[in-house]
Design a protein that fits this description.
alpha/beta, five-stranded antiparallel sheet, 9 helices
């Protein structure tokens, strides 16, 4: 069953066409990595799926609910009504590049806040969920700390715990290690690997080629706003069909 379906999505900023008709689907339990050079449209695509950017045309369906559709013979996409948008928003978790934690909240409150105000959980249940997820991240002793007291890797693990606390159907990652020192990258990749073993459905935009190859059920290579190639990671990384994919991957194998 597809949890995300993207059909002919286009997006421009002024005169720059960033997405030129993107189509793909993400099935339940699947880990899909999107790779490609900077400026290829990867992060913009993710932001369109999570409704942080609007599209110019196309269709996006998430968990059987239509986020946006462009009727035939129309040049204007139509977005779902507010209640449906909220339901979709709760079904998709997003982990940002730069953590996006509230600096004036403790770690525990960062994870509890949306549970209480969005899911309407009582404080006891929210705290129990937060502590369970902090233990899963190896951070149970950091509940009372503030973001500035944590390393970048610890802050990103808190961000992942916060996203998981809302029980999303799909977890999206936008370059989750790009703001980290190389020494801290491994701990975040290990967390994502553990979630993959639990069959969490994940969409990962990443520049970590070895990680994408090892963790993914499927890989998409994007360039200049188009999907150039997609398939089994072993095939894409070892025997890419497209010359553009080969040239991109040569930089990482040399």
């Amino acid at each position: 069953m597809s949890l995300i379906s993207v059909e002919q999505v286009k997006k421009s900023f002024s005169n720059l066409e960033v997405l030129k008709g993107i189509s793909f689907s993400l099935d339940k339990g699947e880990v899909l990595s999107i790779i490609g050079p900077s400026g290829s449209g990867k992060s913009t695509l993710l932001r369109c799926i999570t409704n942080l950017e609007t599209i110019d045309s196309g269709t996006i369906t998430i968990c059987s609910k239509t986020l946006v559709d462009t009727p035939q013979n129309s040049s204007h996409p139509q977005y779902a009504k507010a209640q449906t948008l909220q339901e979709i928003r709760l079904s998709v978790g997003l982990v940002f590049q730069n953590f996006n934690l509230f600096p004036h909240f403790s770690v525990l409150r960062n994870i509890c806040e949306a549970q209480i105000h969005v899911l309407k959980r009582n404080k006891k249940e929210a705290v129990e969920t937060a502590m369970r997820l902090l233990a899963k991240m190896g951070l149970e002793d950091k509940a009372d700390a503030y973001p500035y007291q944590l390393s970048g890797g610890q802050q990103q693990r808190v961000s992942i715990a916060r996203a998981l606390a809302l029980d999303p159907e799909v977890l999206c990652f936008d370059e989750p290690t790009s703001a980290l020192d190389p020494e801290l990258t491994g701990e975040i990749l290990d967390v994502i690997k553990s979630l993959a073993k639990e069959h969490m459905t994940m969409l990962v935009v990443t520049h970590e080629m070895a990680f994408a190859r090892d963790i993914s059920d499927r890989v998409i290579f994007m360039d200049e706003g188009l999907i150039v190639e997609q398939g089994d990671p072993r095939q894409v990384f070892s025997e890419p069909k497209m010359e553009r994919t080969r040239r991109f991957l040569q930089r990482f194998s040399s």
